[in-house]
Amino acid sequence: MRLIQARRFSVAPMIDWTDRHCRFFHRQLTRRALLYTEMIVADAILNGDADRLLDFDTAEHPVALQIGGSDPDKLARATRIAASYGYDEINLNVGCPSDRVQSGTFGACLMREPSLVGECLGAMVGASAIPVTVKCRLGVDDQDPEEALDRLANAAVAAGVAGIWVHARKAWLEGLSPKQNRDIPPLDYDRVHRLKQRLPDVFVGLNGGVKTLCEAEAQLPHVNGVMMGRAAYQTPDRLVDVDARFFGEAPRNIDFAALIEVMADYAARHMAQGGRLGQVTRHMIGLFNGMPGARRWRQILSEGASRPDAGPQLLLEAFAAVRVGTAARAAA
């Protein structure tokens, strides 16, 4: 039940961004939202360092793992391995348009092969009791979004998925870069709404172009959940209001001083295990966007975290600059 509720608002899987340090930070801002890992390729799980790829802090719950791949057997085996780490959900990526993903014949190009997607999802569902979902596009290139999305959704439902997340854009694999695919193909929320109307008993969530919590709330009469990506990462303080606005909890004001202390302690533990400060602080750069002292905060973290002697104290130093900026504005 907690997972079903958590899908009401989630932070999207983003390659190179939503790693375990990002998710620990985001969890300090929202207790209830579902957090996603960046996409991890099934082959990497099977042949690489599974602990490094899959281990996470228990504080991150509820947390979902996104897997990339197109081989049902490999995906089933990767799902079994991932299940042992305690994820709340496992999601198959059928939406990423990057060249690297296309060369592996998975991601958005799988929109052209709904029967294979169904086989992959069925293998994943059969491999573990953990709920399996899929994240897809409206279609790719010249596909008709009505037909392409319905065929993919039908295959997913037949495979027994627990939900379908739809990035409400086509992916143009010919002629557009992955970055351009985030903005140039037009959004079509109505197409996702029609999918939900057709599948009233299936969880259907919407992703793509959602920049504010008000925009997210406006979608909930039409779909079961909303996923926010870059806006949540670049201005993470907005996550503070998620629990009140989407999960019915009492509004709260964030104690930034306490947050910085928690993150400094987390960074210290990470560094004691051989990690680097910048691996944690890079996800916190946008925390004070629009606030007095934000520029100095970004400067201190961006420049200081790469120094050989950089330690968790840098977070306290950067936060002191925010406090000075806030005090100066109040006195003006």
Question: Can you offer a commentary on this structure?
Answer:
The protein starts with a helix and ends with a helix. The chain has 332 residues and is α/β, with parallel strands linked by helices. 45% of the residues lie in helices and 12% in strands. The protein is built from 16 helices and nine strands. Helix 15 runs antiparallel to helix 16. It folds into two domains: 2-247, Alpha-Beta Barrel (TIM Barrel), CATH 3.20.20.70; 256-331, Four Helix Bundle (Hemerythrin (Met), subunit A) (Up-down Bundle), CATH 1.20.120. The record marks 93, 179, 182, 295, 298 as: Interacts with tRNA. Keywords: Flavoprotein, FMN, NADP, Nucleotide-binding, Oxidoreductase, RNA-binding, tRNA processing, tRNA-binding. Catalyzes the synthesis of 5,6-dihydrouridine (D), a modified base found in the D-loop of most tRNAs, via the reduction of the C5-C6 double bond in target uridines. Specifically modifies U20 and U20a in tRNAs. The active site is at 96 (proton donor).
